[in-house]
Request: fold
Amino acid sequence: METEKNTELPRLDEVFDVLRKGRHIAPEDADLYFNLHNGEAAFTELFAKLGFVLKKHPRDFYYFKGEADISDTSSRMAVFMFILVETLADSGASAEEQIMTSLFFVDKLEHLRRERYRDIMLEAGMPTEEELRQTLRTMERFGFLKMEGPDSFRFRAPAYRFLDLCMELFKESEAAEEKL
Amino acid sequence: MAIISPLTFFRFAADHSELLERLYEKRSRIAETELREYVLACRKDNDPAPQRVINQLEELGIIEPSPEATAAYEMRRPVAQLLAYLLHEYRLTSVEVIQAYLSDLQKLGGGLVKAVADKDGAGAVRLLADAADEVERMRQDSRHSREAIVADVVKLKANKAGLTVKERLSRVDYLWTRYMAPLRDMLDVRKEMERQLDSLEAALAHGEIAFETDLAVHREFTALRSRALRLRREIAADFKESIKELLPLHNELHRESAVSRGAAHALELIKRGGLHAIDLTKRLGISTWRAKGLFADEAIRAYMLGLKGYTPKLPPPLCAVRAPDLASLIQADEFNAKAEKAVPLDDALAWLIEQYPQAAPEQLLRCYARFYYGEFGATRFAAATEKSYAAQGLSFSARPMGVEKNGN
Reply:
């Protein structure tokens, strides 16, 4: 029985365990990703029977679509990304390109430097660098970024979910303006 | 302006190429002081005095006084065009200019039709030369537009000037709406250019047949047909290449702009309405499923081991039959006899407790009630203060109640 299961869906327990905890599996996750990628249809079908929706993003990563209430965590991560996108755009850089290619240093982030951002960080429960670092650790746990050292990090493909969210909000604001 | 010898012009240009490039970069409204600074900055050891160089620039028709300001110059247009060509910096040709070319070609085509009908070979050759000139200018402008768009796209991609996404998007949108979209309309939608060139080619084909025997004129018709064909091919290629360069950047910047504007919009919403203004949890939908109420493997194993050696015991009886406690009861007949003998009493309750020390409190109270309702004689309460009585672990408080003997 065990042999049969492993042949069909290798590392099923490990894949399931990380996905249910909210992690996004990207090509950098090597074995896990390739097992999931190769058996995508079977995994999707099995997870669907268990009540989980396995999503594949166009940028080639997988995650479970969840609805659980973790508002603080989601909000903190999203606020962190919104501010990062805005500061990059203000500097003239391509936010998307920078996010996907650059190495970021915690002490260079604008989040707690500008007053306007400090207010929003406070609202999101990240008034100090400690909370900001905690958010980065959470984002690493979910697979959105990888800490390259204690003070630097690099984003992974799943960070596109936040860029998609920005697009979604932009479209909504455009639609609302059109209605007016 | 005096006649300029090409040799003198190009010798001067060779000696002062750096200065010419600087002037070309500035092109319009070069203040006299600025001009002097440029000349001094590019000066070599054996160069004449700066004022002499400035005079030469004017004499050779490289610069001329600016019409809009005193003590200011601008580069003359033919020289600027030459430098643009040499530096591969081309200007974009607007659709209006292309339409003017097409309009000219239409007129020239009409003239050719007439010349062919009149068998006017000499007139046809003149018209063919003019038309060839128009076709070539159109072809060059199309190529220059393509080069200009490619150069702009490269510059915008490199973004050495540090322009914001919004600024770059505005430039791309300008290129798109001012040049590419109207050109696309002309080429693909209305097919205006195709119609004009078709009409010209038809005139040329007639001319070739009409002047079949006049080889010199025939050759000119054939040459223009070839030029028109090349123009058609190259304009389409230039347009496709320009689109290929511009469209990805156009789309990328639109996406970039949407992303950054979306982020700014989100921050604005949060600032105004707090985090609840955007339902980020639902939008992101990050899974955080946790098992609740499930046994750990070890707990299940321990439980199963317990079940394995389990021997059921007899259930306890629903209730045990107990012998009645007769001591707690007061027999009615016995009480009647005792009470009748005992009256008169000063304190009925004290007497009851004394006579029935084992009796249950409710039994004592029942008998006390019989005294109270006068069954054994009239009752009276002492004026004294309340007294405490103890019976079976309980404590009663009452004023002592006396009972008189009936008939007294």
